[in-house]
Each structure stands twice: as structure tokens, then as C-alpha cells.
Amino acid sequence: MNDDLFFEQLGELCDQLGERAPAPSTLKSRVFTALVRRQQQQGPLKTLSACRKAGETLCIFEQLVAIAPVGEPVKAKNPCEVCHARLLGERVDDAPIWWAGCPYVQFQNR
Amino acid sequence: MRGLQSSAEQVEQAGGGLTADAVLAGDAELARGVLGRDRKAAAEFVDRFSGPVYSYLSSRFAPRVELAEDAMQEVFMVAWERLGSWSGTVPLQAWLMGIARHKVQDHYRARLREPQCWEDLEEEPRDSGMAGLEVVLDQQRSAARAMALIGELPEASRLVLRWRYWDRLSTREIAAQTGRTEKAVERLLARAREQFRSRWLVGDGGQ
To answer: B17 with B100, same domain?
Structure first.
């Protein structure tokens, strides 16, 4: 066995057996926020009313916005921008948030 | 280069037992949701694929966690920009991993183009003598130890080792990417292997 073969086997072994680092929940949260902001720059988001009609699970805050007497353009904004769950999710791993339907809760590794 | 698989293999691997058609159908539905700017679909997209993407990136950028995190954000931004051109014939996970591999290559290329990586190399590359220790590869803890040792090497050494042996680029390909000769790449690899060997033997009690 020469050096090349040894190191190729080592590389394969590390990829197969090496410890798999889970993505930190704070990172997933930041990626999601950035992704939605980018989507929003390029056009309106799917409205909360449409999400509701499609049977998607909305968090309590989204449900309130969805039934509020406001125009559809408001319902096509990202309500997470003004939610404390986003702030906690982006900054704290295992953040103390538990609402059903909240994407930042979905990202917690627990 | 390692990592190239047939579409069928990629589908099976990504699906965790689901049939190829089921995986692709699920992926297509998710892609439609993301392209429709549905935040719930975007959350599912990030949640479903961030694990394998981050695992790969962190293994290639270790110990630079911040580079892996920046790269992951870039992978998902590129994915969003290009999702409309996703063929639908390979699983989204494999498609995303392709983007991640390009990000890693871009980084390796940029770093290894810097002149200081190539200073003080020996004229004639030599074997490190690691080949006589192949028996240790039978042990799972060797993988963890090797990954830790690679992370301790100087940046140029760990990048060239990973590029050559983890991602299986040939010395010719690395030479082309970095604008150096194959001989220079061999010298850089020889130094990296020797650095690895000396650290490995220290842990083995100098045997």
C-alpha cells in the first residue's frame, strides 16, 4: 500500500465513520430568514390566507394576521420579521420557543 | 472525482428506503412550494436538507466553523436562485450537495492560489511511510482521530489533503485549478502527508 492508497482509504473512512455534526438551529434559523428575505425581494410571498386555505399549519401569530381585516398585501409580508421567536431562534440554540407551526421551533435540534 | 453517482443511486440514497419516484415526486412538490414563495415550504426546504449539507461542509472546512456556516448560507441562496432550473431527475439533496461541493472547491482553489502555500517545499516528494500503518484504519476511532489531526494541520496542508484524498481530485486537476505544476502539487502533498504522519506518530507514542 502506498501513501496515495492509504490516504484515499483514510478519506473514505472519515466520510463514512466520522462524526456527523448536526446543523446548529441558529444557523438553520438564519438561513431560513435570509432565504425568505431574498424571496421577498423578488416578489410577494404566498399570502397567509392562501396558506390557510391550503391546510398549512400556521402559528398563533400567523392565524391572527390571516383573519385580521387587513388587505392581502399585508398578508403577503413575512410576519416572522416582527416575532420574538425569530430573534431567539437566530441567537440561541435550544431556544425557549414551543409554538406549533413556527418555523423557528421546527429548526430546534431536540 | 469522487461523489459522482448515477441518478438512481442518488435517488435511493436520498430517499432512505422510499422508491425513486416517491422521492422525486416529494422533491418536486417541495420545489414548487419554494418557488411559489411559500414560507412553510422554505422552512421545510431548509430543515430537510441543512443536515447533510452542513455535515459535508463542516467536514471540509474544519476547524473553521464560521466558513462552514457562511458556505451553508451561500448554498441555500444559490439553490433559491437556481431552483427553477432544477431538472427534477436527481433528488434535491444530491443537487444541493453539488452546489456545496462547488463552494468547497471555490474556497480550496482561492486559498491554494496564494503563494505562501507553496513556499519551502522539498525538491523531491517522498512517501511519508504511513502505508506501513494501514492496520489502524480498521478501527473506527481512527476516523475521529484522523479528522482531528487533519484539522490541526496548517491550512494549505489540510486543504490539499482533503481535496486530493477526500474529494478525489487528481494532482493534475489540482495543478490546473491552482495554476501550479503537478510536481509542485506533489511536493505540497508530500509535506502535508509528512506533517500528518508526525502528528499521528506522536499520538502512537512515537512508534
So the answer is: yes
